[in-house]
Amino acid sequence: MTGTGFPEEELVEKARSGGSGAFGRLVEHTLAGTWACAWRFTGNQADAEDLVQETYMKAWVGISKFRKQSGFATWLYRIDLIIVIPAEAGIQSV
Questions:
Q1: pLDDT (tens digit, 9 = 90+) per residue, 36-80?
Q2: Where do the structural domains in the chain lie, given as residue ranges?
Q3: pTM listed for this prediction
């Protein structure tokens, strides 16, 4: 459990085991920050919504690769960057 009382590590482990409910709680806990980040990168609501959706989709698919060397929100921020930088350069992300 983190210092905030939020059981992040436990939820990550459950999500890694296929627990969509646990992943949903992680989304709820990080959505405001992920949205703010997406808005900063894109500057408009529609693109920010797309970025948030793609970020969480990639996180769900790649949760088994999360090595817990940082917090879950930090990992999401990194996913945002991986999506946004190629888009800003006009390159389609994979």
A1: 988 998 898 999 999 999 999 999 999 999 988 899 999 999 998
A2: 8-88
A3: 0.82
3-state secondary structure 50-62: HHHHHHHHHHHHH
**Closest listed residue to residue 75, CA positions, set 23, 39, 40:** 23
Q: Which amino acid is at 77?
A: Y
Domain 8-88, what architecture? Orthogonal Bundle (1.10)
38 within 8 A of 55, measured Cβ to Cβ: yes
| All residues at 6 or more sequence positions from 55 whose CB lies less than 8 Å from its CB, including other chains | 34, 38, 76, 79, 80, 83
